[in-house]
Amino acid sequence: MTLDVLLPELRAYALSLSKHRHDSEDLVQDAIERALRSDKRPKPLADLRPWMFRIIRNLHVDETRKKRVRMEYSNTQSRLSIDLTQSHDHAEDITVRTTFATLPPAMREVLFLVDVMGMKYAEAAEIMEVPHGTVMSRVSRARRALIEAIEATPERANKDTKR
After folding, report:
1. Over the stretch 42-97, which tens digit does the pLDDT of each residue have?
2. DSSP character string of the chain
3. Is the N or the C terminus of the chain less surrounded, counting Cβ atoms within 10 Å?
């Protein structure tokens, strides 16, 4: 049995997920391409049908995540640039941002999700696929590490001695 028998159902399912015809056509095309490249494609139609639906669903979820991440990044960049222009202490902002960039990736991730994006701990836990309590402790450690790193910068030391 070939994939062309399933095309009407695949198109209908993709359209129900994406709500836009061109996006649904892209989903179906990507799913068929992925299926044709697979060495483990089921042969019987009874097995092929749900397998193709899963591929379409997974592709849709992946694309939705990509769009959300791009939008969040864009919004954050806009917000950060607005914050920077409205701030009275540009040197402090630059110090915080450069110090943030030096943190380990796990600390940057949790601070970005909770402090920059304003997500609740439960939302960050879901995204990071860790328990709620783990996010709480990671945020605490990351904030402490950021503050300690900022206080250790030469600019901060010079500023504190002038007071």
Report:
1. 878 788 889 999 999 999 988 888 888 777 767 666 655 555 455 566 677 788 88
2. --GGGTHHHHHHHHHHHHSSHHHHHHHHHHHHHHHHH-S----SHHHHHHHHHHHHHHHHHHHHHHHHHHHHHHHHHHHHHHHHHH-S-HHHHHHHHHHHHHS-HHHHHHHIIIIIS---HHHHHHHHTS-HHHHHHHHHHHHHHHHHHHHTSHHHHHHHHH-
3. C
**Do 61 and 112 share a domain, yes or no?**
no
Within a domain: 82: no
Regarding whether 45 and 96 lie in a shared domain, the answer is: no
Q: Distance of CA 104 to CAs 111, 135, 149, Å?
A: 11, 15, 12
Can you give the residue range of the structural domain that contains 62? 3-66
93 & 157 share domain = yes
Total domain count, the chain: 2
Global confidence as pTM: 0.46
